[in-house]
From TrEMBL:
Alphabetical list of InterPro entries matching this protein: HmuY (IPR025921)
UniProt key word Oxidoreductase: no
Protein name: HmuY protein
Signal peptide segment: 1-21
Classification via PROSITE patterns: PROKAR_LIPOPROTEIN
Organism encoding this protein: Flagellimonas chongwuensis
Keywords: Signal
Domain of life according to the entry: Bacteria
Pfam family, one: HmuY
Length: 502
């Protein structure tokens, strides 16, 4: 009975979330913009990819011709490009269906201290008569790092099954896409010893309090003591649940409406939505080994294939199973012990050193290795996570919740952000200026301020009544606003936002 109702509930949610705009059959004008007006390089950079974005996918192949002007920079001595631009013009090919294109700026030398050096690239012409320049028809590539001033970003989340998490840094106009099933847990690199779960994969975890012997715990085990939890019955009404065995516990461990928990007692099998150090499902890791207990980790769900219907989403595939994990720490590194839940003979052990350059070091329990996920902590501001899950309350329902189109900001790295709601007396996005910034409104302890509130899933549209103000760790202020919920063909998992430095 539970399974039948759950399947119906999931089907209803998928139907609701599949709504999208009917954009009609007429193609919008094809315009070309540089993704950013400015691009910074560091002394270590030897090349930089420069992106041009299109207002819609190209309906035919063509060529974009660029010109360039150097300030204290000469072609062949200080820089080159790929494709070649020695003639003074760079011809960039566009294939039918392309959403954007790019070329490579190759830096051959650095600026001498006390001097400036830059190259400005401009759109000159097209070989298709109906193509036109957008508002950002040139970009300046600086030989010293400068904060990007504005741009339009098309996210690389990957489509209706949202396979990728995307990290975006405003000051460098850089997005980093990482497949969301490459990791399950991550280790905090700060002073506290903390373990985070991957919310984009719906990973969850429960502590077997008092148990330090990893191999003694299997699905057939009794718990050291019964757990008094809350669940939902078949009518989605709360009911008390007493769990005495591991097999009973597994019924309510994965993220779902029927996930167990007890928020009044501080029991949650997921990290909290806010992303605070105190809100992790794993307790703080002690430097005293005997105080660190075994956890059972639900590895979340496979990434399914794309949704069959245009405008719908399909983000949750088959369950990925369970592992048992125990984490130790000496304060400078973590030692993770892990094995399949049924294993009773041996376990794997890996030591992971803390790396202060990053907020978190991600780890794959399925592959037994660290994984490159987040950029360094000062080189990203927002995470377009695509999928996001946690145990909490939504419109009176306390359960395991999963969202699509979710956006987080880098609170662990010092990024602040707040939402502006347009109402009487509040400036529109276009009119918002530096003088309108409210320093007291920046939120540094809740990564989920944006969340999914930037779009209306029921109508498949952008929420036009809100935009966001961000302050990065270097003190740069930006405003940004979402401008697209789907691709021009109506496929979910393709977000677009515009931003401007204040």
């Amino acid at each position: 009975m539970k399974k039948t109702i759950l399947l119906k509930a999931i089907a209803l949610l998928l139907i609701i979330s599949s709504c999208s705009d009917d954009e009609g059959e007429d193609l919008i004008d094809f315009t070309v913009n540089f993704s950013s007006e400015t691009v910074g390089t560091t002394e270590e950079d030897t090349s930089k990819e420069i992106t041009l974005s299109f207002s819609r996918p190209a309906s035919e192949a063509g060529t974009i011709n660029l010109t360039y002007t150097g300030t204290n920079a000469e072609y062949g001595t200080d820089f080159t490009t790929t494709p070649d631009g020695a003639s003074g013009t760079i011809a960039i090919s566009v294939a039918a269906g392309d959403r954007n294109t790019s070329f490579t700026f190759n830096k051959l030398s650095n600026a001498i201290e006390g001097s400036s050096k830059s190259v400005t690239f401009s759109i000159e012409s097209f070989d298709q008569s109906d193509w036109s320049q957008g508002s950002t028809a040139s970009t300046l590539v600086s030989y010293t790092a400068v904060a990007a001033s504005s741009g339009v970003i098309d996210s690389e989340n990957g489509g209706s099954n949202m396979p990728n998490q995307v990290y975006f840094d405003f000051s460098s106009a850089t997005q980093t896409a990482v497949q969301r099933d490459t990791w399950e847990i991550a280790f905090f690199n700060g002073t506290e010893n903390r373990v985070f779960l991957n919310p984009a994969l719906a990973v969850s975890a429960v502590e077997i309090t008092g148990e330090t012997d990893l191999l003694s715990i299997t699905e057939a085990s009794d718990l050291p003591a019964p757990m008094e939890l809350n669940g939902l019955n078949a009518m989605f009404q709360p009911e008390a649940v007493t769990v005495s065995t591991v097999s009973e516990l597994l019924e309510g461990l994965p993220v779902s409406y029927y996930q167990y928990g007890n928020l009044d007692e501080g029991i949650s099998f997921t990290d909290n939505a806010e992303g605070t150090l105190e809100g992790t499902a794993f307790s703080e890791v002690s430097t005293t080994a005997e105080e660190n207990y075994v956890y059972i980790v639900s590895l979340g769900f496979e990434i399914p294939g794309p949704a069959e219907d245009v405008g719908s989403i399909e983000t949750t595939g088959d369950p990925r199973g369970y592992m048992k994990v125990r984490v130790l720490s000496d304060g400078n590194s973590y030692t993770v012990q892990y094995a399949d839940l049924a294993e009773t003979e041996s376990y794997n052990e890996v030591t992971v050193a803390k790396n202060d350059a990053y907020n978190l070091t991600a780890f794959s329990l399925t592959n037994g290795e660290t994984v490159s996920v987040e950029p360094t902590k000062e080189q990203w501001d927002i995470n377009l996570s695509g999928v996001f899950s946690y145990y909490g309350s939504s419109q009176g329902l306390v359960a395991g919740l999963t969202y699509s189109d979710y956006v987080l900001h880098n609170t662990l790295g010092g990024t602040g952000l707040y939402q502006v709601t347009i109402e009487e007396g509040v400036p529109t996005y276009a009119n918002f200026a530096m003088a309108d910034v409210d320093e007291s409104s920046f939120v540094y302890d809740n990564r989920a301020v944006v969340g999914s509130g930037w779009r209306d899933a029921f109508n498949g549209t952008i929420n036009e009544n809100v935009y966001y103000i961000l302050k990065d760790v270097d003190g740069n202020y930006y405003k940004f606003d979402f401008t697209a919920f789907t691709s021009t063909e109506g496929e979910r998992g393709h977000y677009q936002f515009t931003y401007e430095r204040l």
